[in-house]
Design brief:
four-stranded antiparallel β-sheet, globular, 27% strand, alpha+beta, disordered N terminus, binds adenosine monophosphate, binds magnesium ion
């Protein structure tokens, strides 16, 4: 009996956790054929669901892929390739292909986003205590010093999956890895064979396969100040990734500091954005761009979109306006209770 009660309490707690931390989520449907699971990994609650004869097996395969990549990408786990690289003191290090590929991609996105996305921001992230969860406000000199190590040019990719970090650089793939892992988990599900499914890693959602009669998936975007979704996106097979200051932050002396750092200043990014959701085919790109756009602001999103329209965006500004890319016109609806928000497509 006690066991059943504690299981129920545990399930309720997990549900609360999901509502608290998830930036976007699949809108629940009543379909008893769906198999689902809930695990804790990558420092977040992960929900997987799949439909089809092999759904259970596919979910297990996706879980295994998530656990495998969690170990590879962990910035603190002493067995991870990232840890090995960050502690190599500038020596050439051979790493797993997944890490090599993602570092290469991160360098490309650093250039694409004019430095707004930079995985070498890690020494600054550490100063603020986001890695250890021992939060603190660093003084200006500490930030200045940590910033001297920040530049994606310090990541030198060599042959045979060998990497060298120059000038005391260290890397943290926390702004891109979840998107990549969600795609890999989706591939694992598909390799087993499912009809359709959804992978939710915190603010990173990946829809998989096709629903019957090509019906769209419906993904809700959480309002930063409420437990409710302010809008729902209808989409086919895609990634939907949200970044927001509300997802991780701390308050000291009445001032709140969040986890997305402007690599140019070393301080939590101050843009006009409360949350940004990026929708696209490539999970890693969506994840990195959600971080970059949060840093750059809504005008920057439009600029980036005019350069590479490989994605769509939904921005909730600090003054409660919704700005969305033009192709979302028939795909975005405001939720009940949020109908008074203004949507501007541009
Ligand atoms: P996300 O939640 O995807 O926006 O990513 C935020 C995480 O990425 C943080 O917790 C840091 O680990 C890391 N990060 C913070 N600022 C940046 C940045 N400007 N570029 C790349 N990664 C960042
Ligand atoms: Mg990101």
């Amino acid at each position: 009996m006690k066991n059943i009660v504690s299981k129920k309490v545990f399930a309720a707690l997990i549900l609360i956790l999901i509502t608290l931390f998830v930036g976007c989520d699949s809108v629940k449907e009543d379909n008893s054929k769906i198999n689902s699971s809930r695990i804790f990994a990558l420092d977040t609650v992960i929900e997987l669901s799949a439909n089809g004869d092999n759904a259970q097996k596919a979910i297990k395969a996706a879980e295994a892929e998530i656990y495998r990549l969690e170990e590879v990408f962990s910035v603190t786990g002493e067995n991870s390739d990232i840890y090995k690289l960050n502690n190599a003191q500038g020596k050439e290090t051979t790493i797993e292909s997944d890490v090599y590929i993602l570092l290469d991609y991160a360098k490309y996105i650093n250039t694409l986003t004019e430095g707004n996305f930079d995985v070498t921001v890690y020494p600054v992230v550490k100063e603020w205590g986001f890695t250890s969860k021992d939060y603190r406000v660093p003084d200006a000199d500490e930030i200045k010093k940590a910033l001297t190590y920040v530049s994606s040019e310090n990541i030198v990719l060599k042959e045979n999956y060998t990497v060298q970090l120059l000038n005391n650089a260290q890397v943290d793939l926390g702004g891109i890895a979840k998107g990549y892992i969600a795609d890999k988990a989706a591939e694992a599900m598909k390799a087993v064979g499912i009809e359709y499914g959804i992978i939710s890693l915190g603010g990173n959602i990946r829809t998989v396969g096709k629903k019957p009669s090509s019906e769209d998936f419906r993904i809700g975007i959480k309002h930063p100040d409420s437990q409710d979704y302010f809008a729902v996106i209808s989409t086919d097979e895609r990634s939907v990734v949200t970044s927001g200051a509300y997802q991780r932050n701390f308050t000291i002396d009445g001032k709140t500091y969040h986890h997305i750092i402007d690599p140019k200043t070393g301080y939590p990014a101050q843009s006009d954005i409360a949350s940004v959701t990026i929708i696209g085919n490539d999970g890693a790109l969506c994840d990195a761009l959600s971080t970059a756009v949060f840093v750059g602001g809504s005008e920057y999103a439009e600029k980036l979109y005019s350069k590479t329209p490989d994605f769509d965006y939904v921005i909730l500004t600090n003054d409660n306006k919704v700005i969305a890319s033009p192709l979302l016109k028939d795909k975005l609806t405001l939720s009940e209770g949020f109908e008074n928000l203004e949507i501007i497509y541009k």
